[in-house]
Every structure is written in C-alpha cells, then in structure tokens.
Amino acid sequence: MAEQTQERPDPYLWLEDVEGSEPLAWVRAHNEVTKAALCDAAFEADKRALYEISTRPDNIPFITRRQGQLYNFWQDAAHVRGLWRRTTMGDYRGAEPAWETVLDIDALARAEGEDWVWKGCGTLQPEQRYGLVSLSRGGADAVVVREFDLVEKRFVADGFALPEAKGGAAWLDRDTVLVSTTLGENAATGSGYPRTVRLWRRGSDFTNAPLLFEGEASDIYISASVDREPGYERTFYRRQITFEEGISYLAREEGEPLRIDLPLDARFDVEKDWLVVKLKSDWALPERTYPADALLAISFSRFLDGDRRFEVLFEPGPRRVLSGFWWTKSRLVLTVLDNLASQIWLGTPGSPWGLEQLQGLPDTASVNAMPLDVGQLERTDEFLLTISSFVEPTKLALVAEDRRIEVLKEAPAAFDASGLEVTRHEAVSVDGEPIPYYQIGPKDQDGPRPAVLYGYGGFSVSMTPGYLGGIGKTWLERGNVWVVANIRGGGEFGAAWHKAGMREGKRLSHDDFAAISQDLARRGVTTPQQLAAYGGSNGGLLVGNMLTRYPERFGAIWCTVPLLDMQRYTRLLAGPSWVAEYGDPDKPGDWAYMAGFSAYQNLDEGRGYPPVLLVTSRRDDRVHPGHARKMAAKLEAMKQPVFFYEPDDGGHGAANKEQAAFLSALGLSFLRRTLTGTGHT
C-alpha cells in the first residue's frame, strides 16, 4: 500500500467483528445506556403515536395486479411481520375491501422459529400461479428463496428452494429458473453480490447447475432478466461493473452472448422491437452528439444491425430532467421533474413517436407513476399514480386507458397542518452555486425554532415532497421546523447535479448542506444550538461530516446506518460497490481527496462536538455496523456526548413498523434532550 494511504493503528478495529462476543457485549451495554437515557415517558408517547399512524386500518393498501386480482402486502398491530393478501378491483374501490390472505408472515415465522421479513415474490407468466418468494432473516439483504403456489396458498413440496444468500432467481419456464446467487465457490464478487448466472432445472442439484454467464470478481454484480413477450422472447445478462457503469448482453442460442453497444453509464429498456435509452453522459456518434439526460428511441433490430439514428423523446433543460420511464402495454410512461415540479408524459411508439402530457394533476404535489400490472403478458395501459406533498395526505390514483384519473384511496390525515406552510428557498454554497431546500414549519414564524435539516446527497437520489405523517404529528405539530435539502450528489437536476457531488465533489455536497444550515440561521428560522442534522446511509456520511467539519453550526447530529470510516469502507461488506461514488482509498490519488470527508479519521481530540446519536443494525449486511460502532467508541474515548443504539434485526432499514416507530421515537427523544428550546412532551 502506498505511503499516502497507510492506516494509523485503529484501536477500535475489534468492533468490526459483527458477531464477536466482546463487540456484542459492548453493543448491548451501550444499548442499555441509551435506552435508560432516552426511553422516557415522552419517548413512549411518541413511539405509540408513530406506531398508531403507521398501522391505521384506513392507511392506503398499495397494490399490484396479477391475473385480475389485486395483491397487497400489509402490516398492522395484529400483523407485525405482515400479510400478503388479495382482493378484486371492485372490492378494492369500496371502503372496506374483503381481503383473502395468501401468506401470513407472522404465522410462518412462528411455525418455523425464524425472524422472517418479506422481500417479495416473482411470479411465472402468464398463469402467475407459481412464484418465487424471497424471505430475509431480520431484514438483511441476503434472502432465502422458495417456490410458492398462489392458488393453493402454500409452499411447493420439493419445489425450487435456495438457502440464504444475496441474489435471486428469475423464471425461464415452469421447470427452469435462472439463478444469480452468492451460493457456491467463487460465486460472489468482491462486493459480496452474485458473480454468475446458472440454469437450474427442477429436481436437479443446484450445485451442478450449468453456468450460463460469468462476470469478473471486480464487478459489482451479475444478473439475468427474461423477456417473455410472444415473438420477442429474449434473455439478457447484465454485468454491473461499477455502481454507475455496466454492460448488458443478449443471450444467443449458439455462440457467445451479444454485447449491447451502449455507453456504460446509460440506462435502457427493450420492449418488443423498441430500444429506449436514457443517457447519463453526452454520447458522440457520427450522426450527432446526444446530450446527457436525453431519452432516445430506435428499432432494436435496426440498432443490432448497426443503425444509430435515434429519435429524441426527451431533451433536458435547465433544471428540467427525466427522473424515470417504464412501459405499460403500448405506452412509455415518463416522469419529469421541472424545477422539482412533477409531470407525467405518455409516449406512443411510431414514426415519429407521439408525446402527450397527462393533464389534471396538481401543480404543487409530488406525483409518481408506477405499474399496476405485474405480468408482462397481461399488461394493460392502466397504471397507478401516488400524489403527495409534505403536509397533504397521499392519494393513490388509477389512470385509465383513456387517461381519466380516478382517486382510489386517500390516506387519513396524521396531523393538523392548518397552521403550517411549505416554502422553497435557496442557499449559496461555497462556490456560489444556489442550493434549493424545502422548509416546512409554522406560518408567520415569530422567531427561531428547533429545526431538523434532513439530506442525502448521493447516488442520484432525489429528495422530493412526501407526506410527513409521523414527523408532522411528533415534530411539526409542536411548532418545530423540518427542512429537506436538495444538495449536489442527488438526482434532482440530472446527471451533472449528481456528478458534481461524487468523488472529489463529495466534500462540495457536504458544503451545500452546511450552506443551508447557515442560511436557516441567517433568515432567523433557527439557531445553531436549535438545529439538528439528520441523515442515514450516505446521508449518515453527510451528517458525520457536519459533525467533524461544521460542529459549530449544529446543536445535535442524528446519524443512522452510516458510512464513516472511508479508509476501510471498501473492505466492509458491500463497500467496494460504491467506489464510483466515493473513490478508492487504496489509490493515493483518490485518498488525497477522500481523506477530507472520512469522518471517522477526522475527529479531532482538540475540538468540541455537538451531541450525537448513532444508530445501526447487527443485520445490516450492506453498510457494516462497524462504522457506527467505531465512531461511537472514538467519540466516547474523547469524552464527547454520544449515544449509540444497535438492534439485533432491521438490516439497512427497519424490520417492521414496530421497530421503525421505536427508532424514530428514539431520535425525537434525543432531539428533545439536546436541542435548546425543545421541552415539548
């Protein structure tokens, strides 16, 4: 290892042993201290309120459609792990649908003595009678896979079954599946994801399943997908080389799979004979150069023959980007963000294509389009919309084939929003870039209030409005302020916005967040002593850097499932898969800039820090719990105020609504204890 990246001795390296007896004893001791300090009567009231909101019987049951029946996965107070159930559209339109239980996860967990968490079911088309159910122990990414009969409502005796591993399986036909899994020798990439695709026939030993496709150990993951459209039956393989780049291949009956010649960072979809491509970078071709964020279309067969004369379906503008696209039976559905305002467009294939904006949607809400039909072979042109804002309950709507919009369900109000308003502002970052943010708080605010600044700033994830529900009840109703940051590294304004917050730009993304904190104080919304920074995962790295780089601007740091030790992150679980976002600490050129945002290394013995709450999970097999453990131990040794909590289950998110309510209430209790002027009960 080069001298520039040589690690100093780490006295807390032992805490990376996730299941070790000494680290677990340390975890449990710290859990008890945290619960003793934070789990008071106000915590219990918040937990109860949050849980009741998340388990209301009139919450929206979100749906997918298989063979004319609507399926929903539901959790409530009586079904903590959840029910997979179904009903009809006619019944669903009623106030109290009659649901038929297909699989009871609570009953299954009791019967098998397992901590099962539902991870979904992929069904075999066109009948969709048989599915491959994925179940996780405690919420980890790794799953077991079992064949399930949706008619008999039971697991298939001697059916397809895979033990716990990362990956999954896709149906090829009734007796054959394509499996991408980490099971077996040399079956995992360096990131801990599947490296191979195997053809597994019913009744055979999986260990002898023939190899169809293999990637490199340095790849992130390998996967397969099956297109069952009559007349266009195809199998695709995917090598995800980095988090941003990959290569797809078209399987052929004879010979090697055919590489699909697209830019490595482009996203694409093939439907019948149409290839639709969304670019992440400019693409220079002999005919013309297509800009980043454009959406292109061409005949797939012509493309395979070498034609590169695309039709441009969407061209980006200043702060106008395409955030998603997918197919119904005969239309392409596009979700557009125009300066963060949602639009839905419908594309009809042809020469040229037709494009039409869906009318009748609210201007101020966040609108997300999603498929209704699961089965490719039984798709219609109907689809679903969710319509939500920070302070208005979410609506679920059906878009009919004639484009009429019917509201199917509306969530109950969780809090009184009559005294609240949502406003948008911009802070100026260190390089002069205006950084937008949403502020949700009292109308005509009369002086600084306790506030939470929430952000993420990575992996092209956009922070758009969504109903605040429990936060509204436990935080906003009490006169406090909630702020959502649209910093660089996100996808709010396209590829350039994301790239500006990657790698060398990651510190700049963090500067954006700090600029918002300063703007909030300048505008009199809050004070540094009343302001908390909150984030999880990549957002945990963000707020960890607020702690180490801008401690004077915050009164508390609420940091969940975080990355913090960027010198060792590539050696911990899925860490290598994020090198494209952060850099490689073993390369001196990368570590030269990464050292500036590795929060764990940047704790300074001579500085004072605001109080910190660090939350992780023993079952998080994506971001290693060692990040949070070591940060807590180091802060504690420096005599800094820190709370730490690590449940046994939950994975990279809460295992169920009960745990989600507990963890949110824990954070709110921490804020009450630390931020000045938050003595609310």
UniProtKB/TrEMBL annotation:
Instruction: Name the residues that span the membrane.
Output: none
Matches recorded under Pfam families: Peptidase_S9, Peptidase_S9_N
**Sorted UniProt keywords:** Hydrolase, Protease, Serine protease
Report domain Peptidase S9 prolyl oligopeptidase catalytic positions.
475-676
Ranges where the Peptidase S9A N-terminal domain occurs: 5-395
Output the SUPFAM superfamilies linked to this UniProt entry: alpha/beta-Hydrolases (SSF53474), Peptidase/esterase 'gauge' domain (SSF50993)
Source species = Microvirga splendida
Name assigned to this protein: S9 family peptidase
Q: Which InterPro entries match?
A: AB_hydrolase_fold (IPR029058), Pept_S9A_N (IPR023302), Peptidase_S9_cat (IPR001375), Peptidase_S9A (IPR002470), Prolyl_oligopep/macrocyclase (IPR051167)
